[in-house]
Structure prediction request, 124 residues.
Amino acid sequence: VQLQASGGGLVQAGGSLRLSCVASGRTFTFSSYGMGWFRQAPGKERELVAAISANGRLNYEESVKGRFTISRDNAKNTLYLQMNNLKSRDTAVYYCTASSGSYYGFSPFSYDYWGQGTLVTVSS
Prediction:
């Protein structure tokens, strides 16, 4: 399974970005996987930003509720993260991840596959 994330970049505080993650693999059925976005800032632990189960249940980290929206397009094997009203504390490397058990919780250890990460930098 390969997860290819893109869409990161430099943005001013208050601005928006949309991250995308394209999933592929010979035996990978995207629609049956829980998918998530984690982030890791320098010197900090990796934390869940948002996750979505196979049947569309959502989970958000408290500080991004109302600003970020996670979604998936099963026909395109693609996961999205729309990030609005970005703040300097959102600066981090963002990772796409997949769970074969349709897990969509906070523990990074319950996710089976990880993408390479895309850097989001928010300037104040």
User: Anything to note?
Assistant: The CA atoms of residues 35 and 98 lie 5 Å apart. The radius of gyration is 13 Å. DSSP finds no helices and eleven strands in the chain.
